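TASK: fixed-backbone design
INPUT:
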């Protein structure tokens, strides 16, 4: 008898990702070699990334890309994720709006990050790679990568931002369970780390610095590739499974969203929930609004500048055309670690420039107000990052109430906050404020790539 492939009943999930680059009226500007300013081709990325990911990164022609069977099989462990009508939150806000959320917190690691971690680990494995490395901020990405490396039989090494390494020891423990080697960043194990520590021995780390360390390891270790949990186009591509599922689920609910919201770090979960709906704005004349919710402590979309910049602090990556606060920008130590990143993905930056994306920023205290309201009305404790999307959904729902309009709002619950309870403790102790970065601070780092600051 033929062995059954899955213990779970087979469920219907999308079998292709959506590549919005193919449908964009203005294509993203090229990514450039930092030294020669030459336009990069996929082959130029092979030393760092899996070849398939490098091709996907620069693919502006294929709108639909097949999800490999091996990845689909792993997706079925937790997909499709629920789409939930937030009746409790609607009632608490007394709003005429219909609020829906897509619950990515049900993945084994509690966030959306597994959607791309599995794909990237698989492509590395398929290519004969044995080791993968990466950085992690709050730890969600490192956990997802460690899990995926384990699933596909790869070794993984994770550089974890020092402040999170200390504040979130349980994420480190989770990575250890899956067999990952975890190092606090900046570390003395790389040149990039040493340089940073020499300049500032008390530096608490940043995603940009950890990326520099991981890339250096990948470039200096045989058979090792780097993986990234956000920002890049192929990462955003893999996340579109979120929105593709949501599109079908909304259809089953007999609704179509007027507003789609995602919190914004580098843009992967935002892209994931919005791009499939945005294609109907681009192709079918829909007028859905797309709101990126970012922290006022790291406001690249609302207050950053569109320019060529590095994706990492030390300047190892290619130059990307993006909204940025400058790659040496040092965000305050807010709890939403996943949102403490200086730049926005290339595709989203172009879409933002073209007026297809709106951005809102929120103070930390306001996001926890929204998160606690959500926990008490819907039962799920949201990740500090996701609290930003909730704050935006609340804001829009209250606007509906004021205006007496009945909009349909969809937001992505990118993850749960069960490993972030220290943050909630501080919230209840009254230790959180609505910190916003000053104009002087913002002006300090913009243009720090000093690259091609021509009129973009
Ligand atoms: C990493 C993370 C984010 C931010 O990253 P994006 O790439 O902008 O999605 C948001 N929410 C959660 C739960 C995360 O783990």
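OUTPUT:
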């Amino acid at each position: 008898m033929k062995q059954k492939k899955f213990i779970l009943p087979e469920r219907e999930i999308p079998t292709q990702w959506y590549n919005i680059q193919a449908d964009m009226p203005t294509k993203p500007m090229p990514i450039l070699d930092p030294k020669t300013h030459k336009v990069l081709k996929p082959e130029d990325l092979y030393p760092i990334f899996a070849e398939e990911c490098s091709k996907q990164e620069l693919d502006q022609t294929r709108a639909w890309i097949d999800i490999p069977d091996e990845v689909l099989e792993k997706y079925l462990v937790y997909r499709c994720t629920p789409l939930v009508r937030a009746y409790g939150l609607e009632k608490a806000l007394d709003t005429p709006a219909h609020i829906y959320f897509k619950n990515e917190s049900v993945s084994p690691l509690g966030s959306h990050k597994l959607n791309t971690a599995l794909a990237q680990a698989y492509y590395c494995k398929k290519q004969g790679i044995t080791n993968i490395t990466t950085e992690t901020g709050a730890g969600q990405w490192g956990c997802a990568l460690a899990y995926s490396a384990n699933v596909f039989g790869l070794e993984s090494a994770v550089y974890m931002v020092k402040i999170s390494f200390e504040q979130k020891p349980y994420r480190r423990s989770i990575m250890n369970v899956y067999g990952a080697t975890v190092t606090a960043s900046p570390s003395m194990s790389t040149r990039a780390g040493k340089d940073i520590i020499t300049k500032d021995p008390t530096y608490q780390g940043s995603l940009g610095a950890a990326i520099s360390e991981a890339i250096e390891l990948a470039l200096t270790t045989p058979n090792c590739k780097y993986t990234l949990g956000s920002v890049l186009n192929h990462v955003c591509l893999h996340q579109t499974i979120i929105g593709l599922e949501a599109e079908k689920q909304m259809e089953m609910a007999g609704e179509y969203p007027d507003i789609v919201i995602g919190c914004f770090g580098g843009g992967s979960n935002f892209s994931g929930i919005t791009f499939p709906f945005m294609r109907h704005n681009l192709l079918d004349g829909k007028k859905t609004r797309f709101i990126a919710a970012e922290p006022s402590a790291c406001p690249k979309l609302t207050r950053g500048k569109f320019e060529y910049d590095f994706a990492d602090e030390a300047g190892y990556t290619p130059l990307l055309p993006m909204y940025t606060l400058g790659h040496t920008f040092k965000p305050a130590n807010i709890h939403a670690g996943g949102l403490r990143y200086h730049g926005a993905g290339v595709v989203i930056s172009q879409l933002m420039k073209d007026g297809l994306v709106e951005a809102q920023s929120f103070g930390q205290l306001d996001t926890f107000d929204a998160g606690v309201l959500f926990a008490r009305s819907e039962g799920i404790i949201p990740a500090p990052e996701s609290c930003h999307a909730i704050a935006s959904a609340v804001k829009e729902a209250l606007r509906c109430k004021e205006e007496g309009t009945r909009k349909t709002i969809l937001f992505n619950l990118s993850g749960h906050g069960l490993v972030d309870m220290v943050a909630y403790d501080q919230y209840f102790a009254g230790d959180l404020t609505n910190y916003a970065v000053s104009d002087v601070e913002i002006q300090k780092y913009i243009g720090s790539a000093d690259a091609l600051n021509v009129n973009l």
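COMMENT: The chain has a mean pLDDT of 94.
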